[in-house]
Design brief:
Arc Repressor Mutant, subunit A; 15% strand; globular
Length: 344
């Protein structure tokens, strides 16, 4: 070591936890997916269990099991008291399949497509500026061609939407609206949430044929067939039916700004006078310095679509340029917000 290098040695101004956190995220967070895949959470649904009992029930060895359970405990998904592991409230709410708010199908989607978030896949997406899911290309075209993939994807989308769908209809007063278009609505979770929370609202669910067929199954579970109708449509090329409320959830982040601008203009031109657009997304802050969740979501979108997350300011400008007025941004549920504007 040179004399200059020795003279430069000193204790850093900041500690090294942030750089370690990157490593620990890569190895640590997948432990929760493993716990989900190995059915740890349903095993603990009725009773707490010791490490030895969990290993015996799942035919696992103590060393890896303890590492996995410790991660789940450290991150708030389990508790450990007097040698026994138990579920926390968040795990009971979101990771037991019997819960109405079950999130696990989305975790299944991540597990089934874990190669998309590999370093090699994300590097290729970065260097080529193209999605890598299902081997690359348009995931929506793949879903039209491969129904089983569509089923898995739709289940995943439903599990991340069913809860937030019950919240945004109460963020502001939507009681005056009569007919809502749920544009490319996936499982119809938001159609269902809007119909449940706004009893005078009728909903027209728009998507391609195979998605409409799946959505009808979800709609029938809630007995809402009379108030939610599906309509097969190409949202880009076909005429939209008459409505005074347009709703988009996790749609804008699938597409480039130019295509989002097109959808915004089509919404404006299709809406009745006095009608309202609602965009439901995880938003960057206006400075585009965070938060981490939408920034990470953008990385996910890079692996799956041609889109990205937007800030409230970006979507406000887009709506204003098209002609919407009274544009507002409201926090909704969890990381989600709505951006909404009115057609004069």
């Amino acid at each position: 070591m040179s004399h200059d290098a020795i003279s430069d040695l000193s204790i850093p101004v900041t500690d090294d936890r942030p750089v370690w956190d990157v490593v620990f995220a890569v190895y640590g967070y997948p432990a929760l997916l493993l716990a989900h895949r190995l059915k740890v959470f349903p095993l603990l649904a009725d009773n707490s269990q010791t490490l030895e009992e969990i290993c015996s029930a799942l035919n696992l060895k103590p060393r890896p099991t303890e590492a996995m359970l410790t991660v789940a405990t450290a991150l708030g998904f389990l508790t450990l008291q007097q040698g026994s592991y138990a579920l926390t409230a968040v795990t009971r709410e979101y990771l037991l399949e019997k819960s109405a708010h079950y999130f696990g199908f989305f975790w299944d989607l991540m597990i089934d497509n874990y190669q998309v978030c590999s370093f090699a896949s994300l590097e290729k997406a970065m260097l080529t500026d193209s999605p890598q899911a299902y081997g690359g290309g348009d995931i929506f075209k793949t879903h039209e061609e491969q129904v089983e993939l569509l089923h898995r994807f739709t289940r995943g989308m439903h599990s991340i939407s069913a809860t937030s769908a019950l919240v945004w209809p109460e963020v502001m007063d939507f009681s005056r609206y009569r007919v809502m278009l749920d544009v490319a609505g996936g499982s119809a979770a938001h159609s269902i949430g809007a119909a449940l929370k706004l009893p005078h609202l009728h909903v027209i669910f728009l998507d391609f044929l195979q998605v409409c067929e799946l959505a009808e199954e979800y709609i029938s579970r809630y007995g809402l067939q009379e108030r939610i109708k599906t309509q097969e449509i190409n949202i880009w090329n076909d005429h939209w039916p008459t409505a005074d409320l347009h709703f988009f959830s996790n749609i804008y982040h699938d597409w480039t700004p130019e295509k989002c601008h097109f959808l915004t203009a089509k919404s404006f031109n299709s809406l009745e006078s006095g009608g309202r657009i609602v965009i439901h997304e995880m938003l960057y802050n206006d400075q585009k310095t965070g938060p981490f969740a939408p920034a990470a979501y953008s990385m996910m979108m890079m692996g799956w679509t041609e889109g990205r997350q937007y800030s409230g300011q970006e979507l406000t400008l887009m709506l204003t340029e098209i002609g919407f007025v009274d544009v507002q941004v409201h926090p909704a549920f969890g990381y989600y917000s709505i951006v909404t504007g009115c057609k004069p």
